[in-house]
Amino acid sequence: MSGEARLMWDQGVTRYDFGPGHPMDPLRLDLTMRLVEAFGLDRHIEVVAAKAAGDSTLRLVHDADYLAAVRRASADPSDADQWMGLGTPDTPAFVDMHDVSALIAGQSVAGAEDIWRGTVRHAVNFAGGLHHAMPSAASGFCVYNDAAIAIARLLELGAERVAYVDLDVHHGDGVQTAFWDDPRVLTISVHEHPRFLFPGTGRPEETGGPGAPGGAVNLALPAGTSDAGWLRALHAVVPELLAEFHPQALVTQHGADTHFEDPLAHLTLSLDAQRAAAEACHDWAHEHAEGRWLALGGGGYAIVDVVPRIWTHLVAIAAHRPIEPEALTPEEWRSAVYVRTREGGPQRMTDGRRPSWRGWEAGYDPADEVDQAVLATRRAVFPAHGLLPEH
User: Looking at the domain assignment, is residue 391 inside a domain?
Assistant: First the structure.
């Protein structure tokens, strides 16, 4: 093992831009990298720019006809095929869309290769996590599904078991679809219940295809779920499944849109709970996957107050240089935020909360909606893994 961690970064990823007014503002990526640098983390984690994914790599997940459609729309956005999800209000076509989407995918694939080959233990691509893209369609701001492509590359390299944990507020439907019937991949998605939110999937009874029973795990939480309930749910489902599955690599998606300030969803997590989840994922990688951890970004539309802070925490955790929650954000970064947005950036790397949660072993409350959701998931998938749904 030649190093602890790599940050996959190419400034070109900020060209992933759907235009003015679109929630997926690439400024969130730029401000995150600026905060990483302001904390000096780039001196403690190797920053590497990988090449764009080529067609043979993209086709590990995506159909050739879809790649051709993306290329056509990239050359002429007016030629976007809405049947393939391109040129829609969610995923508008833009010039060079193929190139920048392939560049983002290339960062995730290279990170996956690095952790599998032992070049580093951990790799982070916070520009990635575009988990809604389907094999033959764009969806939910996502053109190429870098998370699924990276997992497929791990399988191509010889991995026999890969676990994927998706912490975005939206269901990780594209990754689930890609590996629905593949017993080598365990997909776990912790999200807001689909009756409230896009994409309308991710119910606990979605448990995988006939060739992979229990291979898809969906924990659908009620709107309004906050720190204690969300962390209780996460820890009541994920660790037992990872321990039983014995993954050789862990891929995690850290969408920041679970935060109470996010404008597109209805969970109410603090930055501090999101940070606790990132720390848990890091610990699970070491405990269950020999330290092989690929951490990706995802959604997140509070682009000044939330996204840069949590993804900087993520980078710091991967670098084994965690930032104290009470740390002040560097003045140089706040000045850069003001120049770019005319807003004052957040002062500290915390929302001032100290998350704690009741462990599942402490008992189940049948009147609690979060506990109901947890039990529904455990009952749906735990038996397929030889686990008991209740204690």
Answer: no
